[in-house]
Amino acid sequence: VPERPTSGNGPLAGVRAFVLTHAWMGTFSTELLALMGADVIQIESRQRPDSWRTHTYAARVPEVFRDRPEAKHAENTNALYNSVNLNKRSLTLNLQDARGLALYKRLIPFTDLVVENFTSRVLGNLDLDYNTLRSIKPDVILVRMAAYGHSGPYEHYPGIGGTIEPMSGMSYLHGYEDGPPMNSGQMYPDPVAATYAASACLLALRHRDRTGEGQVVDLSMQEANMTMIGDVYLDYAATGRVRGRLGNRHLTLAPHNIYACRPATGGERWIAIAARDEVEWQALCRLAGHPEWESDERFLDNGGRKRNEAALDVLISAWTRDQDADELEERLGRSLPAARVRTGVEIRDVPQQVERGFFARLTHPETGPLDYAGVPFRMSVSQPEIVRPAPLLGEHSWEVLREYLDMDEAEYESLVADGVTGMGAPPGWDGKP
Amino acid sequence: MAAALSDLRVIDLSQEVAGPFCARLLADFGADVIKVEPPGGEPGRRLPPLVDDGPEPERSVYFTYLNSNKRGVVLDLEAAADRERLLALVRDADVVVESFAPGYLEGLGLGFAALEATKPGIILTSVTPWGQTGPWRDRPATDLTAYALSGWAETNRFVGRPPLKGSGYQASMYAGNAAFLTTLGAIHYRDRHGVGQQVDVSILESLTEIFGPRFLQAQHGSETPRPSRPDFLSGPVPSADGYFSMTLSRAWFWRDAMTVLGLPELADADSFLNRQSKRDELIARAEPAIAARPKEALFEELAAFRAVSGMVLSADEAFSNRHVRERDFFVPIDQPALGRVEMTGPPFRMSASPWALRRPSPRLGEHTEAVLAELGAARA
Asked: What is the ipTM of this complex?
C-alpha cells in the first residue's frame, strides 16, 4: 500500500478519493476536497470526455491561445473544466470495458470516498452500486448527486443547473421587478449542490472515523437548492405569501439599487449603493452633495424612503449619471455600502481581493499562466495550498496505475492501445464529433 | 443512528444571515448549538419577512428559518460578568461561530487567543463580508456590494438592463454554506491532530469563488454574451400557464425537444449546430410552440424522451411539487412564533448519520437559565 500522499498542508491531507465526478456540480464538489488537501484522483473517460472539457475532440482551441503551440487540445483548453479541477489528478479508465472496470474495482480498497453525479441509474449499470462497492471495501463512503436525487417520480429525469434553478423555486425569485423569472448568469445551483456534497463527504468521513461505518449519501440538486431559499418556503407555509421578484431592491430598505454612472473606456459603468440606517443615509446625502434629500419630507425615515423609492431612485440616478464610478466608490465606500460593478477580468483588480491574495496565478501546460479563483477561506493552522492546475485528460494515468497497482509498462501500453486508459482522444477516433 | 456531529457543542455568536446559516447546518447534523444574543436580540430578529402578530423579537420568518435546531441564550458581552459566563460556555465547546466586525471580539478580550486559552483546541469560525484582513475589511457591505464586486451582478443581467443581484440574501446564504464546509474541515483537522484554529470566511471571496468558470472564460475570450431579452436558449420563457426552461446542450435533446414541440423540420442536427447563426429564426419558431403548452405536460413529455427541461415553480407550486412530496422533503414542526408549519428538509440525505430537525427556533433568551445551569455557569 502506498504511503498516504498529501497535496499541500490542507486539513484533508491524507484523505484519498477516486471520484467519478464531471461537469460543474460534480467536479467542483471534489475540487473543494482537493483544495482542502485531499488527494483527489478523477476518473475520466477518453471515449466520453467530461462535457466541461468538450463535446468533441474536433472543437477548436480558443483563439486567444493561437500563439501558444502547447495549446493543442480542445479537451485541455476549456475554461469551464480548467476552472474547477485544481489540485486534482486525472486517471482515464473506460468503465464500459471489463478491464477498465476491473482496474477501478482494484482501486476501491485505497479510497476513502467515491463521489459521483451521473444520472441515477448509471452507477448500477456500471456494476458499481453501493452494495458492490461495499463488498470490496466495507466502510466505503459513496456520495451520490443527481438532479432530483435517487428516489421519487423524477429520479430518472435529467436535469442540470439551468433546469434545477426553475424547479427549485429560485428562478421565480430572480429577475427585474417588472420582468419575467430568470436564471442566473451561470448555473448557480451547481456550486450550491457541490459545496453541500463536499460537506456530506466530511460528515460521512467523521461518522466513519467515530464508528467504523460507511454510508451512502443521496443529494438531490433540487432539494439542496430549496434549502437556500428556505425562508421563502417557510414564509409561504406560515402565511400563504408567495414571494416574487425584487430586482436589486430590498424587501424593506431603501435606497438599495444599482445605478448607471458616466460611461468610460470600455463601455457602461454601474455602481451599487445601499443605505441601511439613518447614519448611512445621511452620509449618502452629504457625500452626494445633495443635503436637500435629507430634509425632503418624503425621505425622513426608511419607511418614507421605501414608500417613495421610485422617486428616490430617479434622484440618485440623475446624480450618479454624471459621476465617475471609481471615484464614487472611493468617495462613498468607507461610509456606506457602495461598490462599482466589475465585469469579467476586472474582478481580480478589487484591492481587497488583491491584498488578501485570493487569486492564484497558475501555469497550465497547455494554456500557460492565467489567474484563477483561489482558496476561498483562510485557516490559521492548516491553510491549504494550490499545488497544481487542472489536469490534462488522463495526465496521471500512468503515474496512478503504477503507484497504486504496480502496473508494468507493457501492460499499461497495451491498455492505452485499446483506449482503456491513456491520454486524449482514444485510438481509432475518426475526427468527427 | 448517531448524527455525525452529536458529540460537539457550538457557541453561535453570529448575527443576521451567513453565520447563523452556518451554525444552523452544524445543528442540523447533530451539534448542540447554543445561540448567544445580546439583550433585545440580534439584528436578525428584525429581518423581513415578518409575521403580523407576536412580540417584536419573535416575528421574523427569516430568523426562524436560520435558527431552528438551536437553543437561545442572552448574554451582554459588553458586561464583564456575562463575558465570564461566555467563557464558561466556551470551556465546554468545540466551535465558536461569529460575524462581528473584525477586531470586535478581540477588543472585548474574547479574541481567538483568549478562547484558545480557555479551551485548547477551540475552532473559531468568522464569517464576514470582507474577511478578517485586507484594506477594505472595515467597509460597510451588503449582499448587493458582493454581487457587484464578484462579477455575478454583471453576468446576471440582460443587456440593456442594469446588472442584477441574486434574490434575497443569496450571497450570505452561499457564504454560510461555504463556512459550514470550512468549519467541517477544521473539525476534521482537530479530530486528527488535536489542534484548533481560526477559520476566516469572506462573503465576497465565497461568491467570487463560484464565479470562477466565468472568470477563466473571460481570460480565454470564450464568454457567452448575455441576451438582451429572455429566450428559450438561455432561460425561462412563457408557457401557457407560467414559464418554462430548456437547456438543450446535446444534439439528441434538441431533436427530441423539437419533435415534442411539433417542429420536426427543426429537429435535424444542423439546426442544433447552427443555432447561434440561426438564433432569431429558431426562437421565432420554437417560442410560440412552448407558449401554447401547459408547463407540467410539456415537462413530463420531454422527460419521457430524457430531454432536459424545467418548470419555473413559484414557492406555492414547489411546496406541493409531486416529486418533492413523494420524497417527504418538507418536515412538519411547531414553531411557537409561526404555529404548525412545514420547513424545507435535508440538503442531502445520509444513510447512517442523518440530518434532523429536532427543535424550533428559540424565543429570545428561552434557554438562558437552563443552559447556564447545565454548564455550571449560572448567574451568581
From this structure: 0.97
